[in-house]
Design goal:
Blueprint: H1 15-25, H2 28-45, E1 58-60, E2 65-67, E3 71-81, E4 95-106, E5 112-113, H3 119-122, E6 123-126, E7 139-142, E8 151-152, E9 158-167, E10 176-188, E11 196-213
Parallel strand pairs: 1-11, 3-11
Antiparallel strand pairs: 2-3, 3-4, 4-9, 5-8, 6-10, 7-9, 10-11
């Protein structure tokens, strides 16, 4: 006869059934999060996830359109001014205004505000100075009527002046500069929201331009 003192410990009555009931109450999304956490922890232990290849950044010629899902952008010219208040860009002592002439078409189905998440995020300078590279433009204006931060209607091309205030010594007329065209991804709201917005702008193309000299602060050449 076996000794009761050495008998295996029996499971607490009802423990298994309570555990099963608790698991059934957990939302399935929690399981996905738990599995994701386990996967990342294991991946980190073995050197992390494999790097994702960066999308190629293609060179385009001046005046050539880069067509994306949100915008079609062609960068025509780069002009250097002492100041350019008519376009909304004001240079102080030791500064100048570098203005790009661009043609932009809204390829989406809804109007886009150029100064909020559209052209503002689509263009960057590269190789000018640390303070200016990858910075948002100081101003965006229509070429025909000087409207600041204009709306872009679907399917209607617009000529814009996109300007940065740059250090005076950072760029001179006759020198080349690179302009980076970035493309955004449409994000669709889920669960509590159903809005759509363009986010996560990434470099898609580069344009090399030769800077030309503008006129005085009045912007005439």
């Amino acid at each position: 006869m076996s000794d009761p003192a050495h008998a295996p410990h029996a499971a607490e009555p009802g423990l298994l059934s309570r555990l099963v009931a608790w698991l059934k109450r957990i939302p399935t999304g929690w399981f996905a999060s738990i599995l994701t956490g386990i996967f990342l922890a294991v991946a980190a232990a073995f050197g992390g996830l494999a790097p994702v290849a960066e999308a190629a950044v293609a060179p385009v010629a001046a005046g050539e359109a880069r067509v994306g899902d949100q915008l079609s952008v062609s960068v025509e010219r780069a002009v250097l001014f002492d100041s350019f208040p008519e376009a909304g860009a004001y240079a102080e002592d030791g500064e100048r205004v570098l203005a790009l002439l661009v043609t932009v078409e809204n390829r989406w189905t809804q109007p886009l505000l150029s100064s909020q998440g559209a052209v503002e995020q689509a263009l960057r300078l590269d190789g000018v100075s640390e303070d200016v590279d990858d910075a948002e433009p100081a101003s965006i204006a229509r070429l025909d009527d000087a409207t600041f931060g204009p709306w872009l209607q679907p399917g209607v091309p617009a000529e814009l002046v996109v300007s940065w205030v740059v250090p005076e010594s950072s760029v001179r007329a006759g020198e080349p500069i690179d302009v980076v065209i970035r493309e955004a991804t449409l994000e669709v709201g889920q669960r509590l929201t159903s809005d759509e917005r363009w986010t996560n702008s990434r470099p898609a193309a580069t344009v090399e331009l030769t800077v030309t000299a503008g006129g005085d602060s009045g912007g005439t050449e």
